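Record type: monomer structure entry
Structure origin: computed from sequence
Chain ID: A
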Amino acid sequence: MTKPKNMSLIAKAMLFISTIIWGSSFFILKNTLDEMPLYFILSIRFLVGALLLFLVGCKNWKKLNKKYLWAGGITGVFLALAYITQTIGLQYTTPSKNAFLTTFYCILVPFFFWGVTKKAPDKFNLVAAVVCLTGIGLVSLGSDDIGFNFMGDGMTLICGIFYALQIVAVELWGKDMDVILYTAFQFFAAFIICFAGFLLFEEAPASISLSAIGSLAYVSVFATTLAFLLMNVGVKYASASSSSLILSCEAVFGVLFSILFYPDEHITPRIVCGFVVMFIGIVINETKLSFLKKEKVKI
């Protein structure tokens, strides 16, 4: 049997792997959106994810109860809304900005826990929120004016709210459920919402290139099914608050992959400064600056 400490380390490793996968998906998804409509892409992603996990978790169907339906459904709604707003934002901004602004959920998680558990955030949470918002302003505001791109930056920030709600839901409900089945029901609920959006607002693409099919397969199998399964396991054993800092590395990898592979990506000193300020806010939020405290020397 794995010891709790070792399980925590394994969980954090899973979270780190998921951030690498998500980071690699931003520029891939950006290119895929040029060929396929938003809800069509998301419907395929979540349907593939749900079917794969239902097959993988078929031996655990005996554990199924009503909680999987309502908890998975509610969490899936948060997940669908997060992906919809994030993908809309990605259409109107660069992959790196989309990746970094998404990490706003790391600051929101403690405040949402306050609303659920009545445990108020401490002074470090409040300071971190102000610092992080300052970083967001540096990243989002244009260099030529003080305008705000709502469809790009705004929708990406909104997606952070839904990601925070999804993480809180996993933390509250996931501990006593089978992770594979719970994640599968999340994906299925998200699929229903996205498929409804496809039927209402979009038409299937007349043709799809092989490269777009490959990109869709990658984001469906790896950036959706595998990455979210790893995240849900990680949050289950490492807790939502301790997982936030690791998950924020998604943005770092998003920028890294974007600079390497996305031709239209440009990083300015102002944006880099905003990234650094946002990261400082996340560090304050997660560490409480404990590394600055001097240890008492025993005599």
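Annotation 1: The radius of gyration is 19 Å.
Annotation 2: The chain is about 75% helix and 0% strand.
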